[in-house]
Structures
1.
Amino acid sequence: MATLTKEFTKGLWAEIPLFRLVLGLCPALAVTTTLENGLGMGVAATFVLVGSNLLVSALRKIIPNEVRVACYIVIIATFVVCVEMLMKAYFFSLSESLGIFIPLIVVNCIILGRAEAFARKNGVLPSIADGLGMGIGFTLALSLLGAIRELLGSGTLGLVFGDQVLIGLSFGFLQQAPGAFIALGLLLGIMNVIGKGK
Amino acid sequence: MNKSIQMILVLSLIALISGLLLGGLNEMTKETIENNILKFKKIPAVADIYQTVNGTSTAQERLALEENLLAEKRYLDLEDGSQMLFFVIRKEGVPYAITLENSGKGFGGDLGVMTGFELETGNLVGIGITTLSETPGLGTRVKESIFRNQFSNLPAGQNLAVKKDGGSVDAITGATVSSRAVCQAINQSIEAFKKHQASIKTASGQ
């Protein structure tokens, strides 16, 4: 039980994908214009991550070593297409704003990375805990980045406060790609400072 | 030998199972997705055109209008076996105009435009934007009424182009590609309307 908790919590802080491993940057920079988009992307990636970790770990004794990456990709792609269809059917406006980045979860390096580095060497339960922890850590990071960019970039926080403008002064620059790099860079810097103090 | 058989078997089996799963899920969600596209993309564009014909309305009336427009969906069977979707716009209860959707090549992918035609004359009554993935703040401005209004009450028969290409349409500053895409989509609709005008008229119940 103690190891399960350890596998789960490492993704939340010590190995939080975006800030510590600096993995999954493409969606992190592209879709985090709002809190809602960041959260939606994170939840979608978490679903895929848990599903693929579960299957890769359950099938780890059957899948031959030589074709393992091909098998993983088929498994991951299946989950991604599931997410894409479900999102289009039940969260249409979110799927519209995430656009191409939902299908692109297939090539998200966190997911293949966890399958290759963790799930294929560990049992089903630790793999689920690992996927869940990493996914939630990724979601938190994306939500934080999205919230900062939305609040400072357009002065709103649509998911919580609707259309209400919270800050009159806004830096539209943060809504664009260069602003995403700068916001992420500052967050990484802050995370490193906190990490050193420990 | 044994090893390679296992490799082929496992990979094929995984692919087979995932294929079956996705096929099933596709069947399950297909209808909902189509309804969503109809409800959140096509109908609002038709409602925009409806409002340029019949005047604007309050937000509440607009909701009721979008609900009503769902019933104005018509299909026309084409010679090649495919179907063409169009909507009927009524003025004082009588079919007055129809709308056709086509898309042009925008900056961020296909840009879908719903174009309204007056049934009698074939004049353009207005346009509405359906799918849009242009640059925020630039290309997305084709949705604004100040740009869209250029296309209301245009006489039939002319090919539309932005001023840069020698036409008469004012492009949005910094979004020439998106403005061109809108013209391209409208021109396709004009062509389709011309070709099928007679059968559209009958199908719209006029």
Note: The interface with chain B takes residues 59, 62-64, 66-67, 70-71, 74-75, 77-78, 81-82, 85-86, 88-90, 92-93, 96, 99, 172, 175 of chain A (CB under 8 Å).
2.
Amino acid sequence: MNNILEAKHISKNFHDTGGMQVLNDINFSIIKGDFVSIIGKSGSGKSTLLYVLSTMDTDYQGEVIIDNVSMRNKQKKELAVVRNEKIGFVFQFHYLLNEFSVLENVMLPAYKLNKFSRPEIQKHASQKLEMLDILKLSDRKVNQLSGGEKQRVAIARALINNPLIIMADEPTGNLDTVNSEIVFNIFQQLSKEYNQTILVVTHDPGFAKKTHRIIEMADGSII
Amino acid sequence: MNYKLIFKIAKALLLARWRQSLVAAIGVTFGIGMFITLLSFMTGLNEMLDGLVINRTPHVRLYNDVKPNPSQAVNKWELYKGYYNFIYSLKSSTTRQEIYNGNFIMKALEKDERVLGFAQRLTTQVFFNNGSLDLNGVINGIEADKERQLFSFNDYIVAGSGADLQNISNAIILGKPLAAKLQLNIGDVVPVTTAAGDRYTLKLVGLFQSGINDLDKVQSYTSLKTAQKIMGKPNNYITEIAIKVKDFDKAPALAREYAKLYDTDAEDIQTANATFETGTRIRLIISYSVGITLLIVAAFGIYNILNMLIYEKIDSIAILNAIGFSGRDVKSIFLTISLSIGFFGGLAGLVVGFTLSNIIDRIPFNTQALPTVTTYPINYNPLFYLVGIVFSVITTYLAGFFPAKRASSIDPVIIIRGK
């Protein structure tokens, strides 16, 4: 079908805390165009789940299926390609590279993908920046930006390879109300106008309420 | 892999910490520069010292040594054929010093492909008379032009001219300290008494200084003809053939061959000057080990700086990982950083090494022992520069390998979540 992301019986133990179970038989799927939020208290395992789904954390039981391909037996190198091509990330802290300008930060995943020529990549990046209303910042260094601006640059970077899904881990967790609002509106706009699939982990119920679907977690399970 | 992108990121990281990068590169520059300077200087010295010996010493010397007759009567006696005979109180026989069949040997040598050239010599003991004093000395009858070509004879003439041996009859060149002892100047007459008691007067046309003072106190040179005349011998009488061969390393083999073929004694330069080769090798080992030590120290500097860089850039590494760079890409990035420090540092090191060598090459170095040398000797061997740059790249690769491997195995989840 149209499942972009599917989680099948995902469980995870933390070995170093005496085998405590952080994820317990998680099952759900996300279809194209979904705007899903995962909420839950601290320690409910919501972030852990996101990193398992993101392919960065490979230490779990069960199966993650992205674009109808299982991530189970893939090597790290192949997973890196999947992340580059199909997933866009937005983190709580912006995580941009200080050594590069805004535009270069946005272009970096596209360079890695190596599918388009340099001028094309530059054009795409400018379009994304334009869309998020930060084109005027393109030549700035990252450390000259405000927190909200940085987060918007991070979103532009997540979008550059036209990913299947955007995964965000507390994207507004470090922002004030005004900037949180802006970031949320961007997500909503992406969902509405571009039919972009988005998965957001948040502890802010207000944010979650405005999404299409809420997955609530407690003690490693979906309630 | 997308090398252009790897280079771009490596460059950005390198320039972000340009001060540390510069310090690391200077470490390599210093190491390579010193390595080259040291080797150039040391091998320059080696070559000069070797040249002292190799250039003026015959590679193979044919002569007749004073020694007991090797074929003793008892060994030829049928009765004692299979025995090992001990002969006591054996005396050296009165062998002739002359080389037998000299003309025939020289004709054969002329045709020998392996021989660069040869010169005839005649050596005899004389007394130099100075008033009531008779000074012991040696006259070497030589072919001046051949000695000049083959054994750099003229390099050691400090006054007068070597060519005058041929041009002026009864000419003689004395060692400088010998002339000083005899109170003689160029143009003066040198009274000589031969071992047989005949008296001759020769004309002083030059002074030489070999660098070995004891030798210069007894040695003198005349033309071959003059020496033959003093000794009252015919003009085919020679006591030594000094051979210069094309391949220096084959001298011992040639010496053995000639000794057998021409039935003379033959001595090769390696046997005559064994200590020189040992010294040469040891000096080379010392300079290589000091140079390589310097480079290893520089490599540890790079290792430290890369490790620090990785700690500082751990967030960047994690984010690169998250946006689709594999561990291998990250490893390549840090190896590129390390290698560029090594390469550019090494390149600068070559320039520094060349400059320092050049400076040393200009420092005046005057010594009585070496009349032809005026500045410190430097050997500009391109091989040192090649070894330098190759070694700098190899050491920096190794220095970068472990930090890069560590960077590639960083778990992005721990870094991103740990914040």
Note: The first strand of chain A starts at residue 3 and ends at 14.
